[in-house]
Input
Amino acid sequence: MVTLSEVVSRYTEYGSFKSVAHYPALYCTGVWTHHPGQCVKRFFYGGALVYKLCFHIQKGGVGKTTISTMLAFSLSRRGHKTILIDCDKQGNASSWVCNRPLDYDIADVLYETIPVSKALFNVDKNLFLLPVLAIDSKFKQWEDTNLVHTPRAFEFLLADIEKLGFEYAILDFPPEFSLLVESIISVTDEVINPLTPEYFSIDGIESFVKLLRNVEKASRHTVKNDKIIINMINESFSRHKIYRDKLHKLDYQIFEIPQDSKIAECQPFHMSLYEYAPTAKSIPSFEALTDTFLGKSNVSS
Ligand SMILES: Nc1ncnc2c1ncn2[C@@H]1O[C@H](COP(=O)(O)OP(=O)(O)OP(=O)(O)O)[C@@H](O)[C@H]1O
Ligand SMILES: [Mg+2]
Output
């Protein structure tokens, strides 16, 4: 019979306790209480529990890729083994962080031509990218022809990623609520809504929640969705103040990122903002978001 203390010590040995730090209750009541199934699986299997996180809203250009990528950089800089999974056929996250041509992408893994480990691009010490090559668009071809026959493909892909010992998987989505997005959200732990302080943003949140409830019902899986990021805030725009105030009245934990021209500047250089402009004004916002995932703060920035 495996005791709870043995499970806890085995978890600590694999560093997995760090990866579940975002569930503060786990420290008090024990992993066993919350995730008995996963606990047993991990005890016998080893490896880490990967926290699967995505940023989504069915709207383009609100900063999904920017926030996903910056959070991935930030978590990895704090010593957490992180994977950024590009799930957008535009391949923006991949073009940002890849500084050389790649041989393989996520489609080769989904077609089962190669194992996931072979498709990974090592961005930084603790940061890996599962890329999308936008030029060939093999990923779009897979989505159009294969996804419908293999709706659990991302569940299996994420299970393989978990075996590689990642602590965080951050998935960058396209600006749509497609079958692809549904199939991935249904196997993630948390989805955060990034938006800009504009008139249509509140409608966007309401329709997102409806779509999310449908996905949860169909998959019988609950996805955490209690955070909004208001991105590209410009203090000198009065309309930004109006919509920002409205968003703060919603029952969400709110994070704010200011408009920062350094973000667009660093992307063509395949550099993170941390490297390109360490004193950029948006850096503290990304750090505050990271703190929350590491259980260091639950206070809205
Ligand atoms: N806080 C910010 N300040 C200034 N520019 C920003 C900020 N956040 C993102 N941007 C810029 O806005 C543009 C859109 O951002 P991004 O590509 O991250 O949005 P997206 O939601 O992923 O877009 P898509 O829907 O096309 O995938 C990019 O050029 C990016 O550099
Ligand atoms: Mg994007």
Strands lie at 51-55, 82-86, 121-124, 127-130, 168-172, 190-195, 227-233, 253-258.
